[in-house]
User: Fold this.
Amino acid sequence: MNLAGRPVPARRSGQATRARDARPGRLTVGRTCAGVALASATLAPRRRLRDSGFPATVTSRMRVSQQAAFILHARSYRETSLLIEAFTRDHGRVGLVARGVRRERSRLPRGLLQPLQPLLLDWIGQGELATLTAAEAAGGPLAVQGEALLAAMYVNELMLRLSARQDASPGAFAAYLECLTQLSGGIDLPWTLRRFERDLLAELGYGLALAQCADGTPVAVGRDYAYDPDSGPLPWCEPSPFVRVAGAALLALERDEPPVTEHLSQLRRMVRAVIRRHLGAELKSWTLVQRGARSPHPRR
Assistant:
């Protein structure tokens, strides 16, 4: 079962997935952010759409109130509005239009519609794009700076690119909230990111095979493996097109135990290969990370 008491999606590699709450260090969905509880959404039916631009088969709107959320991305829309991608606890990623928010006297608080700000959102609509009707802070903005800010930008881009709209995953929201909280506290950035990537992939149905090889044999601490993004670890044999990773690194990630620095670098390359396989493309934030690697700080 995951953090919300729901079954965890089976790993695509075929390896059995343990319950997400069996690992230590997991947040529950009911935890607070910045000292404020993130409230549940309430739903209510609405009247028939009149001129919303949605297909004629849609006959009612959905109203969502007080939904715990974070802004992943926002951009200008027409002269006075914003197009927002928000990640919510009970509705997954949603597309919202904040109409008139760029006007001088907007009823929506534009200053709150920023990444890293815990929010409670109201919206109304149906389909791919709904209308934001209210927003309030669910706590102070998370204080993320320097290397941690680059890491948070990566986390937001990963959520934006890897998740589907309106695919609810309270477990993924809990993992995201935990990751941002640790980043704001400056807690071991590389290990925080590896844990988040592992948990997010599992919640979205792309769970990493870490304890067993593709042929079902257990991963051994003293051996090296080639990690195939489609089937998992394979005994290392040169030449190989896959990332080389130590068995000890795989088992450390499986057991939620921080590995040595060298193994963290191997896990970073391995997870990037998996993400690249699912997206079919690179992430823009990886380029920023590579530029930041010129600094004396550890790479993510």
Remarks:
- The chain has two domains: 35-137, 147-292.
